[in-house]
Design a protein that fits this description.
Elements: H1 3-11, E1 19-24, E2 34-38, E3 41-47, E4 53-57, E5 71-73, E6 76-78, E7 85-86, E8 99-101, E9 105-109, E10 133-141, H2 145-152, H3 158-161, E11 166-171, E12 181-188, E13 194-205, E14 208-216, E15 222-232, E16 238-248, H4 253-259, H5 262-294
Antiparallel strand pairs: 1-9, 2-3, 3-4, 5-6, 6-7, 8-9, 10-16, 11-12, 12-13, 13-14, 14-15, 15-16
This protein binds fe (ii) ion.
Amino acid sequence: MSRIEKGLALSQQRNPGGWYVIGASEDVGRTTSIVRSIGGVEVVLWRDSSGALVAGPGECPHMGASLAAGVVNDSVLYCRWHGYEVDARGTREWQPFPALDDGVLLWVRLGTAGEAPLDRPVICERPPLGESLSAVIAIPGTCEPKDIVANRLDPWHGAWFHPYAFSHLTVDDAASTDEELLVDVAFRLNRTWGIPVRARFTCPDARTIVMHIVEGEGAGSVVETHATPMGINRDGQHRTMMVEATIAYSPRTGFQLTRHLSPLLKPMVRRTARQLWVDDLVYAERRYQLRSRRV
Ligand SMILES: [Fe+2]
């Protein structure tokens, strides 16, 4: 078995406890609801009057309307069709799902995958959010969550497939294990300049792979890649949402000033992450395609 497959097999044994990343904290405001799909289950999300996330079935128990874009007033969500009311207390017909806003990402727990439920999602070590800059992207692909994880368990592709982003990439074989990859890499700024860092890749649960910058510029920063199954499309293929949070941190005072520029910097961080994922989804989808063909 190759190292990538071995790492992947180990990652798939890690229990997510029924929790799924369903978007970015910024995706849900205070006045209206949104609906997203997890494994074919419609999930509605809104915030109560304290700002806490509320989630539940996305179908109105009255006549089946989508609870998307409903009016939220004083913790209550009103269905758009007939004003049917739902709130976090739930009713016999409509039971809320456990939900959490961790300050960067939104999580919902469903009991559909047969996973032993956990009270809280597995959240990796993060830098202090108040001193960091965080940016989230979400891109759908035709593959399964494990294909997204497999892409990131293969750092060897970085310098070949993304020469615009990385150079001098080496996997530290002596320091790496099946559960932890240590990589020395230079993030390219332009043709000549790169920032050398040491990064550690781990899988805290079966649908997540995390890169921590452990040495070099921005040590303490983290990039979390989450893969959430959305359901099956008309052609019978799996659709998965890749949600990636970059939480950039540096103890330097200059960076504290930079954080105030976050409205300008966030789009830049997102653009860079998106550029990588345009290629990486091709990789993940190719893996899925080959596997589907063999079945
Ligand atoms: Fe990649």
